[in-house]
Amino acid sequence: MSETGNTLMNGTQLPSCYNPAVEKIGKTSAYCLFLLVSLAGNTFIVIIVYKTKPMRKSINFLIVNMAMSDLLYPIFVFPRIVTELYVDSWLIGGVVGQALCKLVHFFQDISAVVSIESLVLIAFDRLGAVVFPPRSPFITSKLCPFFILATWIVAMAIHSPDVVVFKLAEFPRGLACALKWHEVFGESSAIENYYLALTVKMFYIPLTLIATLNVVIYFKLKAQTIPDEHSVASAAEQQRVKRERNVLNMAIATVLGFVVCWVPFSIIISIILHGPKVLFVVCTIFRLLLSLCLAQIVL
Asked: How far apart are CA 104 and CA 75, in angstroms?
């Protein structure tokens, strides 16, 4: 065999199945599809809730908040990823390029935090509606805008380091948006510990809380008996219970979707930063989350 391993003994070359151009086209098509679906889907959610008065409720406003945060991805993240497939350097320099370098990573990170904060608020809102139905809801229409504003303020505060640690840097191949953690915070500050703490606090703890609250809601709904459908007096109660169960199904689907999309990513980041030593802890937390989510479906 030759050094490349792709030739036969007589020197003839075997056809290669890998084609960089095809790979780029495939990735570009996939990212463009994700961009269009995300942009259209999230925009559609915002428009529907805005134009439909009966849907203007706290839980739907929180879903709109998630949709607005998710719009940051097709606007800021996907175009950057597609550009990097074809260009090895940062295209825009100067003050504008420096600002974009910081904002792209900043908005990418706060998008995930706002989404998971909204999921936590939705879980608490459903808990109050199902477990304590006679009382006023935990998140009233008047308080909802303040909670939504708080999700963005908290997310921006948590990821404020992005604004100072991402900088344009000159490399032989051109400009690049680089992470300059030690240059800003010094050699004694460990970026690995920062991202590990961030992952645990903003992903695993909230997701465990969301899953636990939904399990409580599930058992409460399961304990409720739907009144006799032939009883006129119980018609309103019957509709309320069914409506709450439909909302719970939607919440479960949302949480599972978030877990499937984000937890594997956070596991990969944790392994990259800390190596195999953190794999056991992360996988244990993931199995706990998965078991809590599955309990809502199987039981």
From this structure: 9
Percent helix, strand, coil in the chain (nearest 5)? 75, 5, 20
For residue 279, what is the enclosing H or E element? helix 279-298
Q: Give this prediction's pTM.
A: 0.75
Q: How far apart are CA 77 and CA 89, in angstroms?
A: 16
Angular region, 226: left φ>0, alpha ψ -120 to 50, beta rest: beta
Nearest to 21 by CA among 29, 33, 13: 29
Query: 159 and 116: one domain?
Result: yes
280 C-beta neighbours (distance < 10 Å), count? 9
Range of the domain at 204: 190-299
Q: Taking a C-beta distance cutoff of 8 angstroms, is the pair 109, 157 a contact?
A: no
> Are 104 and 198 members of one domain?
no
Question: Alpha-carbon distance 246 to 296, whole Å?
Answer: 13
Q: Model confidence over 69-122: pLDDT tens digits? A: 989 888 888 888 888 888 877 878 788 888 888 888 899 889 889 988 998 898
